[in-house]
């Protein structure tokens, strides 16, 4: 069974460094949103386009994991609903999910952000102190149950987790992890 690692944390928490370690140790397919967004859009960090890129990366990760390849998702996953949706969707595809939370103190975070911008501006986005404060306030840290792989709660009323996830990440196809039963009478799918 493949494992999907959901790396949770604020900017400059060390998610990409941890992702690189997991990528080598497992070995695993590492999907880092920032790397793709920087390549596609340059120094901008466009919100709607970023969500589409994440959706496409999640589709790729789900398909790879369903085929037996470990996957490291270096996205941040700031909300509990994001993590619950993915734990459910990956679990339904027979993929184990591990939630790893990387914690960073505010002063350390500011220092890392400033250093990254100063030393490697081509590998990051400009981030203001106001944004760091705002993002920290909106971040929902995982609880012990999530970190231990506890049960996924019910989705928001009137939705499935798969529907919620495809609404959150345009371009995400939560069905790519499932394989239809093929018989002689089943037309071949490409």
Descriptive overview:
This is AAA family ATPase. Residues 181-190 have a biased composition (Polar residues). InterPro entries: P-loop_NTPase (IPR027417). It comes from Kineococcus mangrovi. Residues 143-190 are annotated as: Disordered. With 190 residues, this protein is α/β, with parallel strands linked by helices. It has a single domain (3-147), classed as P-loop containing nucleotide triphosphate hydrolases (Rossmann fold), CATH 3.40.50. Helices cover 47% and strands 12% of the residues. The chain has helices at 15-25, 33-41, 47-66, 80-92, 106-119, 129-138, 144-147, 161-168; strands at 3-8, 29-32, 71-76, 96-101. The radius of gyration is 17 Å and the shape is globular. The mean pLDDT is 93.
Q: Sketch the topology as an H/E string, one letter per element.
A: EHEHHEHEHHHH
What characterizes the major β-sheet?
A: 4 strands, parallel
Helix content estimate: 40-55%
Which CATH class is shown?
Alpha Beta
Query: How big a fraction of the residues is strand?
Result: 5-15%
Can you tell me the overall shape? globular
Taken together, the total number of domains comes to 1
Distance between the termini: 24 Å
Average pLDDT level = 93
Category from helices, strands and their pairing: alpha/beta
Which helices and strands appear, and what pairs or packs with what?
Elements: E1 3-8, H1 15-25, E2 29-32, H2 33-41, H3 47-66, E3 71-76, H4 80-92, E4 96-101, H5 106-119, H6 129-138, H7 144-147, H8 161-168
Parallel strand pairs: 1-3, 1-4, 2-3
Biased composition (Polar residues): 181-190
Protein name: AAA family ATPase
Region (Disordered): 143-190
